[in-house]
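Continued from yesterday's entry.
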Amino acid sequence: MHPSYQKLLSYVSEIKHLNHSSAAAVVVMQNDQIILEHYEGVHGNEHSNLIGIDSMFNIASARKSYLALAIGYALYEKKIHSLDDCVSKYLKNYDQQIFQGTTIRHLMTHSHGLDERDDGSIYREFAAGESWAYRGINIRIITELFKYLYDYDFTQLLKERVFMPLGFKSTEWSTEESEALVKVIDYPEQKATFQLYPYDDGMGSNLHTTAREFALWGNLHLNMGRHEGIQVVPEDVIRLCTSIQSLQYDDGRLPANGLFWYVQEKAKERSEIGECVPKGSYQILGNTGPLLLVVPENHLVVVRMYNKRYNYGGKNYLHYLREFSNRASDAFTIPSCSKMHRL
């Protein structure tokens, strides 16, 4: 094994240990081929199966990239006129005063300014488009929007139009425990469970996939919707999802987003992408540790999987996310950035 590959895997193992994850996996594709694959650990914090190619991880918020593709279809098929349509044009069941000026673009780029209290009431943190904050309420609204537009769940569209043509066998919204599912650890001393959310939350939660199929999901985007020479997803849908759709912020520290994906424009302090990763790259993350990095400049897809809720580093977790993508950049012959470009 190339020394730089081993160095990256050692780093993945180190963070796995520090964060009390029981499992880790790495799959790297370049030029449509797997060039590195690594599995270690077990499915939970009690006696359980060894991690392997069939192990299905709960990817938590990384499922946003799947919802993003569904909304990309809605735009492509003119179900939505524009990203700049106000949400109130489609959904009437929310307080119109609070939602005033909130567009689909704001919801898809985390610039909507909405949040939710423990009692379920919605309030506004800042005016739509004026800042950026990662909150969960936009996922529920966008999920509702898709169902309003198509009269069925976005998961059905993905299964029929994407998963089946790709031949996916191990990507599913799981509702029952099985030996293939990697359990999520909240606390090392507590029993782990395969689910993060209630079955009926309506947001396509508890999406499980293997490291290989997660990498193929990234590779589909890298190839602009093509898989083994066949155009599975329209190129325009992929372009919508993975190009910058966020507005310019007064605060230069805030990240750029496509449709939920973080997109590398230039190094941003509050972005999860490392400053050494080339422009045009994009990444998605879940709080159980899955990370999918796509680097078009080097025709590269990098997947890292864990099974511990909350990413290592506490309030400084972004540092470790950037550190991983920077190390991946160094390992797979992406030119390193100079000190002048570092944060």
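--- second protein ---
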Amino acid sequence: MAVDTFDEPLFDRDTVWQNVRRRALLTVGVPLAVLAYLTYTWFAFGVPDLLARAQPERAVILGTDSVAYKVHVTKLLRSDKMEVAIEGERRATYDHDKLPDWVKVTGKDAVVDLGKGYLVDIAGKVVHFTVPGYGTIKVTATDAGVDTVLPPGPVPDWILDNPRKFDARPTLDRRLQVTRSKIEVHNYFGGWENFWFPFHSQFYDLPFSELWAIALSNERIDPDQSNMSLILDEFLSNPDWQHREVFIALFETIMMAVLGTLTAALFGLPLAFLAARNFTPSLIVRFGIRRLFDFLRGIDMLIWSLIFIRAFGLGPLTGALAIAFTDTGSLGKLFSEALENIDNKQVEGVRATGASQVQRYRFGVIPQILPVFVSQVLYYLESNTRSATVIGALGAGGIGLLLVETIKTSRDWENTTYIILLTIVVVILMDQTSGWLRRKLIEGK
């Protein structure tokens, strides 16, 4: 019986070695390349400098200001006058016979009890600040600045002491500032003060049950309007929170998104027929329409808004036009692709009945692309609600413009938080509404 012999090995060692080296290179080389890229971007983008300039304590302060309010106890040294006000606002100044119980004013001097042993005693131009665990700080306002006497030992990092200004913040919710012109104490409290009604409103600080009783009462406070209307008007006219302006701006933002999206859908659908291969045989027409789509969606929505702001000025119309131009290109491309993927058998079936061209489109084409049409339009409507906020910040109006104005002040962070929360609520409602419409129109539920 013959025995087969094999002079060559069952595998090529060189080939195997090359495969091993290739896999080793991929296993080690790719992570090294990613690490090198991240290292480059770390220094190219100046991350070390950014971290060095970061002020996390300021972020904590701003976060506190967004969910709390502070009461200012101020001694104006030039006029020798004492004021107690919420957020330092003149229109939210307490009358001297209705001061908070933690402030005791005697003539032109005051004692401020900040709680837990923190005590501020203001006598003339001299302040004694008692801090538990540290001691008593004495600060005197002079014509040149301030003179400070600190307890013996190292100066803690929560004290800023220089000849022009003294600033002490032993805790996040307690602060003392002294300059040659004023002495100011800050005491923080949780919540949004004056959110419902202005400080001097007749409805200020009333419990909900009493407000409801007044609203339903037949005895009118103002003979010209009902109590319910008066309470609502007091709420909307709140000068600190500007509820009426905020709600109008939210409505403008929603209308900006709706008008822009619907305009894009109405123009994008007929243009999509001209861009689809199976509906437009002319290569020149298809090429021109598709390049038009590329041009419209290739320029970002923010750039379009800047162009229209320069052309037509500020206002919601410029935002709606920016959304319409960008989304006409995006939706037109999506619709044309959906048209190219339809089933021609359904169109041929409608044609066999003797239907006209319009009828073939209506009964053979539209039902096939309707789910894509509705789904994409609703998705873009939801997305454009967020985009309209950003566009509004550039000057197109709406809630975005109000948001930027509150951020620029660097002090009304509770108003900024209020606007952000309302924007999130609107986006959630738009998401739920678009989902409900999608189910009703597509699934029939």
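Residues 260 and 324 are 4 Å apart (CA to CA). The two ends are 79 Å apart (CA to CA). Will compare against the first tomorrow.
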